[in-house]
Amino acid sequence: MREVIRRVSKEFGISRDEAELVVASLLEQPRFHIYLNGTIDTATQKTLERKLAQLKEDMPIEYVTKRTRFREYELHIEPGVFIPRLETEYFIDLIAQCSKEPPCTILEIGTGSGAIAIALAHIFPTAFIVATDISETALTCAHTNIRNHGLDTRITLMRGDMFDALSGQFDMIISNPPYIPHSRLPALPRSVRNFEPLSSLDGGKNGIQFITKLIERGGDFLTHNGSMAIEIDEEQVDILHELLSKTLSMPFSFHKDLFNRFRYLLIGNTEV
Ligand SMILES: C[S@@+](CC[C@H](N)C(=O)[O-])C[C@H]1O[C@@H](n2cnc3c(N)ncnc32)[C@H](O)[C@@H]1O
After folding, report:
1. pLDDT of the residue at 144
2. Strand pairing class (105-109; 170-175)
3. How do residues 2-30 score in pLDDT, each as one tens digit?
């Protein structure tokens, strides 16, 4: 095992400590366990080599281990499902702070792994949530996570294209839609470009194709005092400001992420 750690450290250009963390994570063992037996059996060695080869190909470690964390929640994740990001963890804080009253009903469009829905179900313990996605793979993954967190009775999953197949009104609509401008896709890191589903990234021209639909149709699905929260790209602020000023009668505001970039759009009845 010491030899394996040395090799991983050298091949990936990381410290021995980091190599131990990577190997422990790939073997799904506590770090100290990897030294307990001294040697590894052939089957474990094969699994480890396969996973190391995937990492060398730039596959995100979340897909290799099929696990990720979103805030304090352990989530199952797999290729074909968008890996939840740090900025979205912070988005949840903003929503918690800006909600005048705890929402009773929440709609999430494009739930992916179910990360946002699961976090909001904990923050608003009396809320019922409908979470949609167009991707069957994402919905299967979200279902696993919702069940693992014991939230089956509070989060309902639905398959559909944006608002299609939905009815009723919600106190809060939230979405982290695909918002990367089509032209910027080739410049994304290899780990994103080659492994994450294009349908979770590609926001069309200017990246606002889905955001525009949320703005145009969201009002029909909001209760009287409802609010909408959308994750955006900082380069979209001007174009969205113009669009919202022309088309929307509700108040709206842009908010910064933890790196000081305007990345969130809040619409309607919020605290700010
Ligand atoms: C950026 S990912 C966000 C996933 C998750 N909410 C998160 O924050 O980690 C966007 C999600 O929207 C879904 N999506 C893409 N097009 C859609 C559509 N037309 N209707 C509903 N969901 C869609 C994708 O499958 C993907 O899961």
Report:
1. 98
2. parallel
3. 888 999 999 999 999 999 999 999 998 89
Sign of the torsion formed by the C-alpha atoms of 153, 154, 159 and 165: positive
Single pTM value for the model: 0.94
Ranges of the chain whose pLDDT falls below 70: 272
Candidates 199, 201, 208, 230: which one to mutate for ligand 1, based on the most atoms within 8 Å of Cβ? 199
Q: Pocket residues for ligand 1 (CB within 6 Å)?
A: 82, 84, 88, 109-113, 115-116, 132-135, 138, 161-162, 176-178, 199-200
Distance CA 196, CA 255 (A): 26
Question: Under a CB-based contact definition with an 8 Å cutoff, are residues 84 and 112 in contact?
Answer: yes
The residue whose CB lies within 8 Å of the most ligand 1 atoms, and thus the one to mutate among 173, 176, 179, 233, is 176
Q: What is the pLDDT of residues 43-84, one digit of tens each?
A: 988 999 999 999 999 999 999 999 999 999 999 999 999 999
Q: b/e for 239-271, b at 16 or more Cβ within 10 A?
A: ebeebbeeeeebebebbebeeeebbbbbbbbbe
Domains and CATH numbers, the chain: 2-54 (no CATH), 67-268 (3.40.50.150)
- Closest atom, ligand 1, to C-alpha of 110: 12
Query: How far is ligand 1, taken at its centre, from the CA of residue 21, in Å?
Result: 31
**Residues 263, 222: Cα–Cα separation, whole Å:** 22
